Amino acid sequence: MSDDRKRAAGDDGRAGAPLAEARTEIRITGFGGQGVVLAGHIIGRACAIHGGKQATMIQSFGPEARGSACSATLVVSDGEVLYPYIRGTDILVAMSSEGYEKYRDELRDDGVLLFEQDLVHPTFKQGQKSVGVPSTRIAESLGRAIVQNIVMVGFFAGVTGLVPEEAMRAAVGGSVPAGTEELNLKAFAEGLDYARHAVTAPTLELRRPPAEGVTV
Amino acid sequence: MKADPAGVLTGAHYLDGDFACGEGAMAAGCRFVAGYPITPSTEVVERIARRFPTMGGSFIQMEDELASMAAVVGASWTGTKSMTVTSGPGFSLMMENIGLAAMMETPCVVVNVQRGGPSTGLPTMVGQADMMQARWGSHGDYEVIALSPQSPQEAFDLTVEAFNLSETYRVPVMFMMDECVGHMTERVVIPEPDEIEVVPRRVTEKSKEDYLPYRLNGHLVPDFARAGDGYRFHTTGLTHDERGYPLMSAECQEACVHRLVEKILGAAGEIEHVEEEATDDAEIVVISYGITSRVAQLAIEMARERGIATGSLRLVVVWPFPERRISELAGRVGGLVVPELNYGQISLEVERIAAGRCPVWHIGHGGGTVHDPETILETILEAARAAA
After folding, report:
1. Cα-flanking dihedrals φ and ψ of residue A110, to 5°?
2. Do domains B5-195 and B275-387 have the same CATH topology?
């Protein structure tokens, strides 16, 4: 039975299975201009070109002008990806509040939320793992807020372990504009490093205690 | 011959179907593209426009789709492999000049990244409802070739095949992608140039004195002479004799038009390209194409788990239609299931060929997304129950 088949049939038998070993459905969301699609492209490329997996990326095409909510989805699998769209989210990467609000309900009960902690203030849900990163501030500390998405990609790599770090690094280097590789690889390393310190894999504990009144 | 290395971006890439189609065109030797931007096809020409300067190609953004198709016909007559790229509304506008290309026997490729219609419909969302238009959209009798890729990898591979077929048969080839495949990014492996077989323009070896543009030379496809090589000839959309001059008679019409049809249908056996799986002992066979074939594959796996011997026949080349093969299947299976993102196009052809020998179950869908595999599964199960 293909991984696709399991998911499509609603046979959600992979609870507790490592993220890397089944059809993993990912959505990355943010506002136009944050590099949402490039982040998705890098993760997909890391999986499909450098990570020995199949990865199908679909970017949302709507009237998404700069500044409004935009998203990219990825299906990552060890086997062939037949159904190209996601039917729920195993990993939701939210880089904007609007994107989070729009897609929070599709996150599976055992899903993982990664969020830009200065921009997104999620409602934590029992069973879902939620981890934040101040990716914009980290990017600013590197001198260029524009690499926020790459900090997030590094954070994603560290938290999920979906593909080996080297695969992600190769994908970053191969996807960003020529001449910016060093800055972007630095941003990636910062995100990865933050994940290592912020999160105790694989339990994905919260670094920050939840705000008062929030159930984790 | 082998591909010109200048157009081949060898390696493993992470590309969407539109980019992969553009790469396929360049690998096939396409060096002229004229088009007018339209979602979801624009990325094809964006890719080409960026890369063409490195290989001596020309891209022109035309004033509209009528002019785009006209420019492609003209460019092809210089011997340059030519292509245009559009989606539904633009495809409609191209129809008159697609007929001209067919009548003048002009090799060219027309890419239609199908979106939901009719009219401007769903610009950013998937459809498969232009399949009949690809075949019958221009007036008069003619035949075309149409292909339908199911992945970015196939968007590359089959674009090369589309050019090769257009050169072999001197016919416009319709490359019927869909928005889902066009906007889907996956691994695409582009081979080395010497692993890519390309068909060059078959230019006449006859002298300028002996050459007639539509005189046959042992083959239903006439020899080609490039404009600019000093061959003096006439070509027209009017019914023409072998000199290419208009001749308004029933006899000339019969000779001219019947050959346009026959050169394709007579070669259908060579042009046809289907992919079959487990059809030999199948009780039910699912016939699909493009993105729908991937979703159908899921449903087929689910049906097999429920004990239904289910086979798959995927149309890689949709036109000419694989009549003989489908006829054989219709004579021995319990049902043919045809999911497609329209309300009945290819299913009608399947019904025509099945001719009542087995039930044909159409699964229509208006587009905007793909079928749920469960929906296709339900129909397979229903077809199996009916056949039992």
Report:
1. -105, 20
2. yes
CB contact at 8 A, A105 and A86: no
A56: distance to nearest CA of chain B, Å?
5
The mean-pLDDT minimum among A195-209, B52-66, B95-109, B289-303 falls in: A195-209
Residue B251 has pLDDT above 80, yes or no: yes
Q: Which residues of A touch B184 (CB under 8 A)?
A: 56-58, 84
- Residue B318 and residue B158 in contact, taking contact as beta carbons nearer than 8 Å: no
Q: What is the pLDDT of residue B50?
A: 97
Q: Does A88 touch chain B (CB under 8 A)?
A: no
How distant, in Å, are the alpha carbons of A141, B63, B234, B330 from that of B170?
60, 26, 17, 32
Residue A57 exposed, middle or buried by CB count within 10 Å (0-12, 13-18, 19+): buried
Strands B108-116 and B122-126: antiparallel
Write down the mean pLDDT value for chain B. 97
Per-residue pLDDT at A201 exceeds 60: no
Contact A82 B180 (CB under 8 A): no
Residue B8: which residues within 8 A CB-CB, separation 6 or more?
A: B26, B27, B190, B191, B192, B193, B196
Nearest CA in chain B to A9: B374
- Amino acid letter for position A102: K
Pick from A1, A9, A58: CB nearest B184: A58
CATH of B275-387, one of 3.40.50.920, 3.40.50.2020, 3.10.450.60, 3.30.9.10: 3.40.50.920
What percentage of chain A carries pLDDT values higher than 70? 78
Handedness of CA A41, A43, A49, A52 (dihedral sign): negative
pTM for the model stands at: 0.93
Interval B58-99: pLDDT, tens: 999 999 999 999 999 999 999 999 999 999 999 999 999 999
Domain ranges of chain B: 5-195, 275-387
B5-195 maps to which CATH number?
3.40.50.970
Considering CB atoms only, which of A9, A56, A61 is closest to B186? Answer: A56
Which amino acid, A115?
A: F
User: Is the pLDDT at B4 greater than 50, yes or no?
Assistant: yes
DSSP H helix total and E strand total for chain B: 13, 15
Q: Max alpha carbon distance in chain A (Å)?
A: 49
How many CB atoms lie under 10 A from the CB of residue A198? 20
Which range (A18-22, B122-126, B214-218, B265-269) has the least confidence? A18-22
Q: What angle do CA B269, B271, B276 make, to 5 degrees?
A: 75
- Per residue in A34-79, pLDDT (tens digit) is 999 999 999 999 999 999 999 999 987 665 555 678 899 999 999 9
Domains (range + CATH), chain A:
3-10+21-198 (3.40.920.10)
Predicted pLDDT of residue B76: 98
Q: Which of B40, B187, B302 lies closest to A9 in CB terms?
A: B302
ipTM above 0.90, yes or no: yes
Interchain CB contact of A4 with B (< 8 Å)? yes
